[in-house]
Amino acid sequence: xxxxxxxxxxxxxxxxxxxxxxxxxxxxxxxxxxxxxxxxxxxxxxxxxxxxxxxxxxxxxxxxxxxxxxxxxxxxxxxxxxxxxxxxxxxxxxxxxxxxxxxxxxxxxxxxxxxxxxxxxxxxxxxxxxxxxxxxxxxxxxxxxxxxxxxxxxxxxxxxxxxxxxxxxxxxxxxxxxxxxxxxxxxxxxxxxxxxxxxxxxxxxxxxxxxxxxxxxxxxxxxxxxxxxxxxxxxxxxxxxxxxxxxxxxxxxxxxxxxxxxxxxxxxx
Length: 269
Known about the structure:
two-stranded antiparallel sheet; alpha/beta; four-stranded parallel β-sheet; 269 residues
């Protein structure tokens, strides 16, 4: 991301929206606010040409603030964000959520996308389904910690915690106890592990963080002879995803229902 975009404020974004509206003689433009730069790339692939996709100035918190301060509370501006562990009742009706926990999990939930990634990049012996479930299972205690951090407002900073080297290629296992130590949350490890063991496979799709799953899958995959990192995995998924894949999601149905109700044009029907 360039420094100009990184330094944009809430006021900058609201002013840009006002300018775009003032130039929209036919009242055709719509706006989608998303969390980050990867979400912008996704949105630009999925939404119609009349839709202006803009990155929030401060992730999901900034997204919420922009919609709340949009002076007209206009129907033509919506937000899309990770589901994470949010209470949906606390959200504006103009905020829509990715299927499952986040964008990356929604992409991987499409069988064509995950199968393609598995066949081309994965270098292990597991089936595609086991490959994904094992990754989420290995991350599950850490996922529970992330959930607690949000629901209990623990204030844990995960941003600089790296764990790629803790994934063993041969066994496809994560040293999650060491990961908790790196996050300086070792005292919560046993409890989180116990809670994670009680989570069934389907529920893993709703608690696994996108950064984590891409990091884990990247450690077991290669692009040519080169190892893959988190960003490379995410980019492959984004490039592979198509509008016809998006039509199969709940998010598509939710936005489609909204645009019909408001007589706007965000998506092609």
